[in-house]
Amino acid sequence: MDVGLKRELEEKVRASVRLTREDGIALYESDDLAWLGGLAHEVRTRKNGDVVHFNVNRHLNMTNVCTASCAYCSFQRKPGEKDAYTMRIEEAVRLAKAMEGENLTELHIVNGLHPNLPWRYYPRSLSELKKALPDVSLKAFTATEIHHFETISGLSASEILDELIEAGLESL
């Protein structure tokens, strides 16, 4: 990026002028990460002062058994396949509790689309995890999993989300 464009972008950022799509592309293509980071820091500081949020997030995958066969996924296993696993809820709680000493603030749960687990397994797991870790935010499930829950439960997505939220879900 030439010096003139850099200067123009700096002026816009410092004047809080909305950037154009072309400006965004130029910033994206910039190889000067120190300069770009400096601009981002100016904007963040202007908006939030010295307040910074830090999240200690850990992942918990209660099952890797999945029927989806997504081409990009190296995580999933077919039922009965070597390395396929499904945790009992008590085991998941034990593993999550072991992470608590790491100043855990968020537990992120993503699973495979298990063909044999009952719908109730999922809200019960959230409920038990929330009981064990009341101060930890539960971020769980993907849109694909919510659709799978519709299929196995006969409930609507709205009903599923209501139950999951009641059980302790805080974000997807």
From TrEMBL:
It comes from Streptomyces sporangiiformans. Its cofactor is [4Fe-4S] cluster. PANTHER family: AMINODEOXYFUTALOSINE SYNTHASE, FO SYNTHASE (COFH). This is Aminofutalosine synthase MqnE. InterPro entries: Aldolase_TIM (IPR013785), F420 (IPR034405), rSAM (IPR007197), rSAM_sf (IPR058240). Pfam families: Radical_SAM. Gene3D superfamilies: Aldolase class I. GO terms for molecular function: 4 iron, 4 sulfur cluster binding; 7,8-didemethyl-8-hydroxy-5-deazariboflavin synthase activity; metal ion binding. Keywords: 4Fe-4S, Iron, Iron-sulfur, Metal-binding, S-adenosyl-L-methionine. Residues 52-172 form the Radical SAM core domain. It comes from the Bacteria. The keyword Phosphoprotein does not apply. Signal peptide: none annotated.
